[in-house]
């Protein structure tokens, strides 16, 4: 027996508003529902992940998910939650982004099986590009009044002086999104639109358009999820260096793993329900275990493991854990040598760094630390710490201060890692 979709989302804290009748529709039959994704980049970021997880649950509960790439709407920009106009995309960029997004979605959704509820990817550019302005104004524009459109919060905010006002292009956005729903309703029997709480106005324009165009017996529904925030009120999914992306080219698996590992306890309790597929009993047990010993960060570790494995792979997760242990645990020199250059630089981001030239290789260790770099203030101090067993080069203990530093000591062909005591690391780049 498939799980009940609405109940599943409810205990996970993933429902903000649900239109009356939606739950009955989902209980009655296999239902098709869609969620729009903005194709402004060739990767999703973790802000998109809530919506994608909702599609995943929808499919796991026996219903059919449609991921709609907003090619046409991406050319216009959605005013919801924005006080500025968007950049507009050309078709080649749009198609490239669509393909990249589909590859990411395919890790979570089943597009390829012959199951009746296999996921479908559509792009609204495909049906909007042939639509003439006159036809749109005549067939769609006449169904919805300006008064109705003006009453929406996303429109009201912009009229009340936030940003630079609102162009006619953006004002028509809700009609275009409404038309998507009508089109999918008519061509794919799609009866539910899913989205973030900020999309409620646009989604209900769609249900209204379907009713006015096809008559009151045409039933369409809306379900929105809360916008994800952090417990301290700052924006979820942003770090100093920008978005946390799902594509390893933009956010490495190590960085991705670290993001989840470092969320607060309160956030971890919410996120583990939203961003993993663990069941209620498992999550309740993890929360209990976490509360008994918060310093062990059981929840963060489980969250980071589940989500890194799901988005990247079990192998990338293992590599991220190993990389994390290099700074804080007793990792070996083999582990260090397995790191790729990008991860190495990220692990040691923020540690003191020095540069030496290739000609300097062959010098003694004590010269490297006290003359070529300022790792130690003097050779005497360096020797003393080596005698006490507190110095290592690339994770191997140094016992002889006069040992030569050679190309064989290099990591990734160009780095030396010196460790003083337990906590102090120095990265030396050989140029």
Describe the structure.
With 431 residues, the chain is α/β, with parallel strands linked by helices. 45% of the residues lie in helices and 13% in strands. The strands form three sheets. Strands 1-6-5-2-3-4 form a six-stranded mixed sheet, sandwiched between helices. It has a five-stranded mixed sheet with strand order 9-13-12-10-11. α13 packs antiparallel against α16. The longest helix has 16 residues. The chain is elongated, with a radius of gyration of 27 Å.
Summarize the structure.
With 431 residues, the chain is of the alpha/beta class. The chain is built from 21 helices and 13 strands. A 6-stranded mixed β-sheet has the order 1-6-5-2-3-4, sandwiched between helices. Strands 9-13-12-10-11 form a 5-stranded mixed β-sheet. Strands 7-8 form a two-stranded antiparallel ribbon.
Layout of helices and strands:
Elements: H1 5-11, E1 17-18, H2 22-28, E2 32-37, H3 49-60, E3 64-69, H4 71-74, H5 91-105, E4 120-123, H6 125-128, H7 133-139, H8 146-150, H9 153-159, H10 168-171, H11 173-188, E5 190-196, H12 200-214, E6 221-225, E7 238-239, E8 242-243, H13 253-261, H14 265-275, H15 280-292, H16 298-311, H17 314-328, H18 333-338, H19 341-347, E9 353-356, H20 365-372, H21 379-387, E10 391-393, E11 396-397, E12 415-420, E13 424-430
Parallel strand pairs: 2-3, 2-5, 3-4, 5-6, 9-13
Antiparallel strand pairs: 1-6, 7-8, 10-11, 10-12, 12-13
What does the overall shape look like? elongated
Strand content: 5-15%
Strands ordered across the widest β-sheet: 1-6-5-2-3-4
Q: Quick one: biggest sheet?
A: 6 strands, mixed
- Annotation, overall tally of beta strands: 13
Would you tell me the structural class of the helices and strands? Answer: alpha/beta
Please tell me how large the radius of gyration is: 27 Å
Estimate percent helicity: 40-55%
